[in-house]
Amino acid sequence: MKDGKRLVITIGRQFGSGGCEVGTKLAQELGLDFYDKNILRMNSDESGIKESYYYMADEKAGNKLLYKIIKSLTPEKGAPSFGSDLTSADNLFRFQSEVIRKLAAEEDCIIMGRCADYVLEGMEGLVRVFIYADMDFREKRTIEKEYYAAKDAKKNIKRIDRERRDYFRYYTGKEWEFPENYDLMINTAAIGTDGAVETIKNYLKVRGFEI
User: Fold this and answer.
1) pLDDT value at position 124?
2) What is the pTM of this model?
3) Which CATH number fits domain 11-204: 2.60.120.200, 3.40.50.300, 1.25.40.10, 3.10.129.10?
């Protein structure tokens, strides 16, 4: 940031609450790189790392740091080989966590999901945000964005929330939606995604960040 103070914002979110939209807009307004779950996707198979690596090799300048970090953690040609447990979910989580730590050490940025708030716990300049909303708002938004058909929206929202909740609990030992895990929790059903962006910016000012 302008005052030399480090800033890394992590964003957790309920599905359909607009968290990714909030992260994207906030990154644009603050001039920060935004790393979302697609770029940092590490599935429980070898292609998870390979897909992320080759995706970044084609990316524009904004993701050169991420590309450099991934490359530094993998052998030649980006084909990771960490032993027989390469494809295990736990190993991929460790790999992903190392990427997140190196990103946060190198630049101010915004990181979406992937337990980044836990991985970076205790880091100076860390701001942990959680975006949520009531089911009616999320169901309507999911249908409008054409993520799922109306008849399937609610069950998929519940399924994805459950998967995120279980993932977070497994790797952190904490509860995903508990307030004590975050610095700021925002209900987008009340103020929308633009309101959430402004709320985060105001919070940063109160915390002493010059934005």
Assistant:
1) 92
2) 0.80
3) 3.40.50.300
